[in-house]
Design brief:
The chain crosses the membrane at residues 34-52. Keywords: Membrane, Transmembrane, Transmembrane helix. The protein is mainly alpha-helical. It has two domains: 3-56; 61-96, no CATH class. The protein has helices at 20-56, 78-83, 85-96; strands spanning 3-5, 12-14. A two-stranded antiparallel ribbon has the order 1-2.
Amino acid sequence: MQEKDNGQLGYIFSDELSTESEAASAGSILPEIMFLRVLGSFFVAVLLWRLVKRLTKPKSPLADVAGPAKDHWLKGNYHRLFQDGLEYNLRLVAKYGGVIRVHALLG
């Protein structure tokens, strides 16, 4: 074992660890750091994969279904289907056809 004196405040540094316990404790830190690096890399890879998947997936044909505008930001227009009764529903079918987009709670 070689020791070097750095000339500052009398500290002596070793090229190698002096005891086996120090070597064992230093060796146990390395797997923990490697595990965190692998876990972090996996997390970033999953996030990037999901982002690319979301950006490249084809748009659903149901995204462009016509329907009335929202009446309220919280309730949407779903409540009017039951509140206004059959006449409202028949007007919607006459205006938009058989498939209608309805905005529900927070929608």
